[in-house]
Fold this sequence. Notes:
With about 210 residues, the protein is of the alpha+beta class. The protein has eight helices and four strands; from the N terminus they run E-H-H-E-E-H-H-H-H-H-E-H. The chain has a four-stranded antiparallel β-sheet. A hairpin with a 4-residue loop joins strand 2 (about 55-60) and strand 3 (about 65-75). Helix 1 crosses helix 7, helix 2 packs antiparallel against helix 3 and helix 3 packs parallel to helix 8 (about 180-190). The longest helix has 18 residues, at about 95-115.
Amino acid sequence: TREIPAVDARLTFAAGAARDGDQPGIAHLTSNLLMSGTTELDAGALARAYEREGAEVGTGAARDMGWIELRSLSADEHLWPVARTVAALAAEPAFPQGEIERLKSQQRTALTSQAQQPGALTGQAFWETLYADHPYGHEPLGTAESLDAITRDDVRDFHQRYYTAANANLAIVGDLSRDEAERLARVLTASLPEGSAAPELPPTPSLDEATTVR
């Protein structure tokens, strides 16, 4: 679409909380840490690079996926510097130890806040009742104990396993031709390790009768 000279792209990975395994909270933590800098640029330099081009970049995680998204002006002088920076963010995160501790503290605070919110408590009770021991059943933020146990090596291992080309999908919309979109796809993914797709999740449990939880 040519009406607005802008491009939106979202790179999603099968790297959500359902992949936490025995380390609840690691998917959410890894996603947030991507914004903390690359091997070449710290968080401040990243922010200035996006601001200089008028771009917006963010990361996130849900139960099924982790993602990196960008919004940029479509002119070459803006789009390609942003795309190259986002590619480095995806493939070469630095995971500084200080940021790991800071973001773990943020997740603990969020857990404490949730424990005081009836809506959050009933929401988690719903997921636990519906999915039981299935990977969907645990709290995506983890627990205070699980967060304490996560190390920098754990985060790096999670990133190397799940943030790969074979485990990714890319959606692009905006003011681009097909050739330009394909070039953008190559720039965003070229530095990712090939890796392999995440395995299928186990089947979700069936509910044979209604359940009331108070």
